[in-house]
Amino acid sequence: MLRDRVIAAIEGFVFIHRRFVLAFFAAFTLLMAYYATHLRIDAGFEKLLPYDHPYIETFKQYRSDFGGADRILVAVRATEGDMFTPEFFKILKGVTDEVFFLPGVDRSRVQSIFTPNVRFIEIVEGGFSGGNVMPAEFQPTPEGMAEVRENILKAGIVGRLVANDFTAAMVSAQLAEIDPATGERLNYIDFAHKLEEKARKPFENERFEIHIIGFAKMIGDIADGAAGVVAFFGVAALITYLLVFFFTHSQRVTLLAILCSAIGVLWDLGLLMMLGFGIDPMSILVPFLVFAIGCSHAVQMSNAYSAELQLGADNVSAARAAFRRLVIPGTVALVTDSVGFLTISFIKIRMIQELAIVAGLGVMLLLFTNLFLLPVLLSYLRLGDAYRARMIRWSEFRERLWKPLSAVAERKWAPVILGVAVLLFAFGLYEAKRLQIGDIQAGVPELRPDARYNRDAYVITSKFSIGVDILSTIVETGPDGCIEHDVMAEMDRFDWRVANVPGVQSTISMPQVAKRISSGWNEGSLKWRTLPRSSINMVQAVRPIIENPTGLMNRDCSAMPVLAFAEDHKAETIQRIVDAVKEFSNGAEKNKYRLASGNLGVMAATNEEVKRTQFPILFWVWLVTVTLCLISFRSLRVTLCIIIPLGAVSILCNGLMSLLGIGLKVNTLPVAALGVGIGVDYGVYIFGRMQGLLAQGKGLREAYHETLRVTGAAVLVTGLTLAIGVATWVFSALKFQADMGLLLSFVFLANMLGALFVLPALASLFFPAGSKSGTRASAAKQSYGS
Questions:
Q1: Local structure of 93: helix, strand or coil
Q2: Closest to 592 in 3D by CA, of 603, 600, 581
Q3: Which of 61, 180, 348, 704 is deepest in the core (most CB within 10 A)?
Q4: Which pLDDT band holds residue 547 (cuts at 50, 70, 90)?
Q5: What is the DSSP-derived secondary structure letter of residue 436?
């Protein structure tokens, strides 16, 4: 066969020129190590935006007029009494100044009661009067405090910049993605650390607490927690070493298997730096996933090498035979893994596309480190007769397990095994229907519920009527629309509709403020808190808003935002607000209501993008998996034996996510691709061995028994090793890492059990006992099945 001749040619070149191959790999590894040492953590708000989504087009169009979604809130809270003390005002003034001068802050949009853009307006005998909430001549006396309190009430900032119970006050700031001073992208992690050093530590004590929330602070906390990933990576590597050593009984074989997987990760990180990418804190787990897949293939190669030694082959012949047997199934499995990750790039979010590149490129590199470098390194080992005798003894010991386990390939056990599988599939399908897209928890789900950030978020949302969870709907009308009664009246009805959506704390809009000013012109009477019908009176009501930079209108008053402050950013909360906006917009007559700005607008766009692309992604993953299996085995029945357990595990994984309260979002998408990839690895390796044995005339149980002794043993060890390794993540400071640990442990174990039990049970139905049907006679000649 052409394939056999190609494999033989590659094998001959690689092993005849072993020194050249090792020299090339060594030089490339040193080069990648140099670049990997310069890899940087690269976080950015823009990377989270679905750049082709209509909501993001609205967000970008009006960002310069109304600000972006990248805000930070710093609240100063008195633990005893209220805020009207000299000490509180001194701390609030200090925090305001520190936030104002932080690099990357848009200083024109910093707000607190100490900034000049926070003003009050009142009606006096001669007309309007106004001024800064904090008078220029303010003194921290009882009289001065009383005056500030009155000004706060007049300014209507209770619930926004001042707590509803007057125990806290807030500093609000917008961040610029590009630092105007340096022209460089804002370093969010460095900014978060400066917030701690400048705005929290110098001011917090037993009497006053500082609470900070916002995207930059969240990313900083996640990055700090991600530093622990290195420790967990080391723990997982140690567990992998111990279990693989227990399996191979050779320290050198074990070290080479782990080394080649680690080299693949190193190459991945180095190439990322060469391509100009960094690594996002949210993608920090991807290198471990690459390492895990690498270990799976390395164990298979090491196991095949050891099996050849037991048959009496020398080290070079054993390495060549292992390469010849595994190069095809290994390539099929790794290509499937890589394509599975790359399909995630269909989601048009830069962070996800970078994640897809990191994972897809890393898995593809394993093809060279684990299928070429590892067997060459193994060919230099001289383990001797003592090692061969030791492996034979252990093989005889393990035979006690393989013999009864091979019985699952008999048709009489198929109804029991497949019946259990069907019940589990039905349960998973039922739970998977309840899987939500987006965040399910009130706090930041990437962090523990008791993390400082989530505690700060709880305090701010409980003390104030606003938070960082804002959905801004841009109301578009003609120029000077803010002085037309019909335009403003419809917008006011829209404001009322959104304000009454469950989960919305409060709203702010142009009509809302205009009604308060109109009332002020009439001695503050509530009867006059309406929108004037006369354009002249409407001008009178909106002039103070126009003359002061409130962010409630653009330059010509043709666009006005309605800000909805939500209690949380749960997917269901966001969806309720979005549905309400769309429902009202469909019946609108005067205005166009465009979703959306604010951080909830970005989240809504992200959730819709994930929902839109999840099925195309799954379609392409499965299409590639099925196609490669068909090309490799040239048998529909073999392909079904491999992919049916995969489908069941994928559904069960979604069901488990629903049970654990984990939403489908950018952080959990790789698990779906990884689940298919790992399952394909197991199935391809097992049936790659079984097919050759069946073609030699052996019965199904006998073929499966022989497969278990070599390939099946490696699948069992790999599944247990990887599952135990990632199970340690449940102790991580990052909740999303702990969640991923649980999910991945399940995926590794479930795919292992599916390959060892469900696959042979299906084979017993598709291939009658002792029959060669479904396998071609030429399969006996296939090098990987011989």
A1: helix
A2: 581
A3: 704
A4: low
A5: P
Exposure on the CB side of residue 775, measured as CA atoms within 13 A: 30
Q: Note whether 542 and 573 are within 8 A (CB).
A: no
For residues 211 and 183, the model is more confident at 211
pLDDT of residue 772: 42
634 phi-psi bin (left φ>0, alpha ψ -120 to 50, beta other):
left
Contacts of 719 (CB under 8 A, 6+ apart): 682, 748, 749, 751, 752, 753
Q: 86-90, 323-327, 446-450: which range is least confident on average?
A: 446-450
pLDDT band with cut points at 50, 70 and 90 for residue 706: confident
Asked whether the bond before 596 is cis by omega within 30 degrees of 0, the reply is yes
Residues 6+ apart with CB under 8 A from 780: 692, 695, 696, 786
**CB atoms near residue 13 (< 10 Å):** 11
- pLDDT range class, residue 781, cuts 50, 70, 90: very low
| All residues at 6 or more sequence positions from 173 whose CB lies less than 8 Å from its CB, including other chains | 71, 72, 74, 99, 100, 102, 105, 106, 109, 110, 111
CB atoms inside a 10 Å sphere around CB 7:
19
Q: Which two tokens stand for residue 222?
A: 């996640």
Cβ pair 370, 326 in contact under 8 A: no
Tokens of 631: 């090309």
Residue whose entry in the numeric block shows the structure tokens 């030791």: 390
Residue 750 token pair: 């479930």
CA distance 564 to 566: 6
Tell me the CA end-to-end span of the chain in Å, nearest whole number: 14
Q: Which two tokens stand for residue 178?
A: 């590009």
Q: What is the rounded CA–CA span in Å between residue 461 and residue 425? A: 41
| Side chain identity at residue 748, one-letter code | F
Half-sphere CA count of 489, side-chain side, radius 13 A = 11
pLDDT, residue 499, reads 93
State how far the Cα of 712 lies from the Cα of 705, in Å rounded to an integer.
Answer: 9
Pairing label, strands 592-597, 470-476 = antiparallel
How far are the Cα atoms of 483, 683, 688, 780 from residue 784, in angstroms, in the given order? 79, 14, 7, 9
Structure tokens belonging to residue 399: 């035979």
CA atoms of 58 and 324, how far apart (whole Å)? 56
DSSP percent split of the chain into helix, strand, coil, nearest 5: 65, 10, 25
Q: How far apart are CA 72 and CA 109, in angstroms?
A: 11
Average pLDDT over the chain reads 84
Token pair of 446, please? Answer: 């990437």
State the Cα angle at 588 between 585 and 589, rounded to 5°: 150
Order of all β-strands in the sheet with 168-175? 105-111, 168-175, 71-78, 208-214
Beta-bridge partner residues of 75 = 170, 211
pLDDT given at position 278? 76
Structural tokens at position 614: 């999840």
Query: Residue 19: in which H helix or E strand, if any?
Result: helix 18-36
pTM of the model: 0.76
- Collapsing DSSP to helix, strand or coil, 484 comes out as coil
Residue type, position 694, single letter: L
**According to the model, what pLDDT value does residue 305 have?**
87
Reference 211, options 441, 566, 463, 443; nearest CA is 463
> Tokens 């895990």 label which residue?
292
Looking up tokens 């530093």 gives 227
Residues 164, 464: contact at Cβ < 8 Å? Answer: yes
| Cα dihedral across residues 564, 566, 570, 576: positive or negative | negative
Residue 670: pLDDT band (50, 70, 90) is low
Tell whether the model's pLDDT for residue 717 goes beyond 60: yes
CA–CA separation, 74 and 114 (whole Å)? 14
- 465 in Cβ contact with 693 (< 8 Å): no
Q: How far apart are CA 606 and CA 146, in angstroms?
A: 46
Cα–Cα distances in Å, from 321 out to 304, 305, 743?
8, 7, 36
| Cβ proximity of 106 and 165 under 8 Å | no
